[in-house]
């Protein structure tokens, strides 16, 4: 067992899952991987099961009964990781929008530089996004700006989904009380970590849009983020410890 677990949530990712697993295992640091699959009808889980024969001690699979949101898939994985006592837990997409080569950088930001949470940031040094249409780039960029304005969070990429957490963060923020399940889940996780005074730092990364499979983004997810953030901001949580 390694000290760090990479959680990869999946739904219909048969085109990407084997390659993302093998690429993650090829990095200079060793990671364990947990795939949380929402009963993909395309056979994603079967591919993972076959790979488990090759990586029996480092590749794990949890299959949920239905697809009910990215946030719930990650929370399922977080609880699994806490139970197994991993020190660091990293969120990563299956579609190579997050580069596995950056996993070590996120890990080192925590282990060597003292961060409790490290964010793979698209916007800490300009706009580092590849293959997105301009409309979506602007939507994402200004959504992050909007979240910063509403919540007061000081980091640039508030909506990022490539994040490394120290286990103590996940143990502290009461996962069962996380309300959002879609796009806003990532915001709520950072907001609560920040409110509890954890050290959150950004690592500049290049985000590359998927080339295989279909995007899971929808208008419902975006609406949840826009209107839910205001409610979250004024939910009566304490001020940040370091403020």
Automatic annotation (TrEMBL):
<dbReference type="InterPro" id="IPR029044">
    <property type="entry name" value="Nucleotide-diphossugar_trans"/>
</dbReference>
<dbReference type="Pfam" id="PF00535">
    <property type="entry name" value="Glycos_transf_2"/>
</dbReference>
<protein>
    <submittedName>
        <fullName>Polyprenol monophosphomannose synthase</fullName>
    </submittedName>
</protein>
<keyword id="KW-0808">Transferase</keyword>
<dbReference type="InterPro" id="IPR001173">
    <property type="entry name" value="Glyco_trans_2-like"/>
</dbReference>
<keyword id="KW-0328">Glycosyltransferase</keyword>
<feature type="domain" description="Glycosyltransferase 2-like">
    <location>
        <begin position="6"/>
        <end position="172"/>
    </location>
</feature>
<dbReference type="InterPro" id="IPR039528">
    <property type="entry name" value="DPM1-like"/>
</dbReference>
<comment type="similarity">
    <text>Belongs to the glycosyltransferase 2 family.</text>
</comment>
């Amino acid at each position: 067992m390694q000290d760090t677990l990479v959680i990869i949530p999946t739904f219909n990712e048969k085109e990407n899952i084997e390659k993302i697993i093998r690429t993650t295992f090829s990095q200079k640091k060793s990671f364990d991987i947990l795939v949380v699959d929402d009963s993909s009808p395309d056979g994603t889980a079967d591919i993972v099961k076959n790979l488990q024969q090759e990586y029996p001690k480092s590749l794990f699979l949890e299959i949920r009964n239905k697809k009910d949101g990215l946030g719930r898939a990650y929370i399922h994985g977080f609880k699994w990781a806490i139970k197994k006592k991993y020190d660091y837990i990293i969120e990563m997409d299956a579609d190579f929008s997050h580069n596995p080569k950056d996993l070590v950088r996120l890990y080192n930001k925590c282990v060597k530089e003292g961060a409790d949470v490290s964010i793979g940031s698209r916007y800490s040094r300009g706009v580092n996004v590849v293959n997105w249409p301009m409309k979506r780039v602007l939507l994402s960029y200004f959504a992050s700006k909007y979240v910063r304005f509403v919540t007061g969070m000081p980091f640039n990429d508030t909506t990022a989904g490539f994040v490394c957490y120290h286990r103590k963060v996940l143990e502290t923020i009461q996962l069962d009380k996380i309300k959002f399940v879609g796009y806003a889940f990532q915001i709520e996780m950072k907001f609560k970590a920040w409110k509890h005074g954890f050290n959150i730092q950004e690592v500049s990364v290049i985000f590359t849009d998927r080339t295989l499979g279909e995007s899971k983004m929808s208008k419902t997810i975006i609406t949840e983020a826009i209107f839910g953030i205001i409610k979250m901001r004024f939910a009566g949580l304490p001020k940040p410890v370091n403020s």
